[in-house]
Design a protein that fits this description.
The chain is mostly helical. It has 7 helices and 4 strands, in the order H-H-H-H-H-H-H-E-E-E-E. A two-stranded antiparallel sheet has the order 1-2. A two-stranded antiparallel sheet has the order 3-4. A hairpin with a 2-residue loop joins strand 1 and strand 2. Helix 1 packs antiparallel against helix 5 and helix 3 packs antiparallel against helix 4.
């Protein structure tokens, strides 16, 4: 097939960005800093690297794209993708590249639009009673963060009394694999 023209390349880059930004595995890796202090920049670089991989290689197969993305995730984020999502991501990117090559740009734009809407829907979840409870817990966790020091700490300049759970408030369970799971009683 013919190489992509400049405007189509830009559209393909936008498509790759939309796919990667809605991929939960990559977003978890970025949100949790698996790639270090520059995780967000690495995710943005991945868009360019993946786009360039398609430009530099003729007739890529889905399994080659899977391997490439897997290597990027492993090398840049120390993450092994084993949740089954990698084939879906690779397939989606391959299909969009083929559509760009075939000048089916309207279809690509529509898919990008759907992915962006999906990302926005996940970014602004409706507040449920369970979510409200989670907010209370996160406020408690923030109050428990400390700078160090004995007996008390300050969080954002305010004095906070050190909180201790009574021994019966935590339950320890030994798992078969040797890990100890600590569960908080509610």
């Amino acid at each position: 097939m013919a190489p992509l023209v400049s405007s189509t390349r830009e559209l393909f880059a936008e498509a790759v960005r939309a796919v990667l930004e809605t991929w939960p595995v990559l977003q978890i890796a970025v949100d949790n800093g698996f790639g270090g202090a520059h995780s967000q920049q690495k995710a943005e670089w991945m868009v360019d690297a993946l786009q360039q991989y398609f430009i530099d290689n003729d007739e890529l197969q889905q399994d080659e794209v899977e391997d490439f993305i897997s290597d990027l995730m492993n090398n840049e984020f120390d993450t092994v993708v084993d949740d089954g999502s990698l084939p879906q991501v690779a397939q989606q990117v391959c299909e969009m590249f083929q559509q760009c090559q075939q000048d089916r740009l309207t279809e690509v734009r529509e898919q990008i639009k759907q992915l962006i809407q999906k990302r926005r829907a996940k970014a602004t979840p409706a507040k449920t009673p369970a979510a409200a409870d989670d907010d209370d817990e996160s406020e408690d966790e923030e109050a428990m963060e400390c700078d160090g020091g004995a007996g008390g700490a300050s969080v954002n300049g305010a004095a906070v009394k050190e909180q201790h759970l009574p021994p019966q408030a935590a339950r320890h369970e030994e798992e078969d694999d040797g890990w100890t799971v600590v569960r908080r009683k509610k």
